[in-house]
């Protein structure tokens, strides 16, 4: 075939695109092949273990154990994980469980990833999607997993050793309710809705509501009972607290407005790709004279077909570079930041950066009126209720600096 001169440029352009795509996928193939042995074969060994009482050492019979097997997929611009298999079983009279070795074929540009374990019984503190492959293949636990407080409560300690998980017994009905609400059950397909874990968790949630049996309920700030519509669920979110300070001096920033936006994710097999998340609740507060703020722990109501997702935070002060819709749950529960390795540069000014540490956000002071104007304009007010404190403060700054 002869290509006319007028089509030659177009043909060369298409050839360049094809070559670029081929090179990108070749690079991915080399990366996957170098990083993981057994490319195209997914293999995990047998997992077995024992679940016991953290105080007495006695066996915990009838606990649900779920193993979620993940594979990693690659594209020319990113990589992520997705579930390839979910297995569930119950512990026997000796507290023991076992999952046979699992082998399957996976697609090109996919690789073996980790296995996460969930362990649930209604009257014991639960393990929620933790990576315990070492423990359940007889190896010592990673150092940070040797001993963990349940939901930050120092009196309830989980302990891990080769082949054994020791769970603390819950002491009150409120603890049992919190435990049931905190166990995540997303991304289990519709045909598995009657699985062991779903049945156990749903029954525990139903039985631990303040009125006992019947539809789940919650109370408003005045203590009035709010009945949840049929099909809705309650999910637990921990307390968030932190401090907002001047990046240079370390002095507290008083009167900054902080918004926490709680999201739910549509629970479908493709939801992790298209990310159909919806805000279900927005909480707001101001920092005090010490720059501190707090959002108490509570249950979030989630509509049918959705599951709990992330919480995003916005922090605004007119004379400081502001933080705009970032998922900072780690930081505001006292953990290490996972945002930009503790530093984030602003999109509208790459000379200014925000610093993060456990429990604290440090904002740089703005230097000019133009910086203050751009800062106010950059704040997203999507899903922030008109007339709310956050809305009023941001709009007030925009009008003042116009």
Count of structural domains? 2
Rg, Å, rounded:
25 Å
Beta-strand percentage range: 35-45%
Q: Cα distance, first to last residue?
A: 62 Å
Can you count the helices? 6
| SSE string | HEEEEEEEEEEEHHEEEEEHEEEEEEEEHH
Uncertain residue ranges? 1-11, 28-38, 187-191, 210-217
Q: Determine the structural class based on helices, strands and strand pairing.
A: alpha+beta
Strand order of the largest sheet: 5-2-11-10-9
Sketch the major β-sheet.
Answer: 5 strands, mixed
Mean pLDDT: 76
The share of residues in helices is 10-25%
The rough form would be described as elongated
Tell me how many strands there are. Answer: 24
Any overview of this molecule?
- This protein is of the alpha+beta class and about 400 residues long.
- It has 2 domains: about 40-205, no CATH class; about 235-400, no CATH class.
- Helices cover about 20% and strands about 40% of the residues.
- The protein contains 6 helices and 24 strands.
- The protein has helices spanning about 5-35, 175-180, 195-205, 270-275, 370-380, 390-400, and strands spanning about 40-45, 45-55, 65-75, 80-90, 95-100, 100-105, 110-120, 125-130, 145-150, 155-160, 165, 215-220, 225, 235, 240-245, 255-265, 275-285, 290-295, 300, 305-315, 320-325, 345, 355, 360-365.
- The strands form 7 sheets. It has a 5-stranded mixed sheet with strand order 5-2-11-10-9, with no helix packed on it. A 5-stranded mixed sheet has the order 18-15-24-23-22, with no helix packed on it.
- The chain is elongated and about 70 Å long.
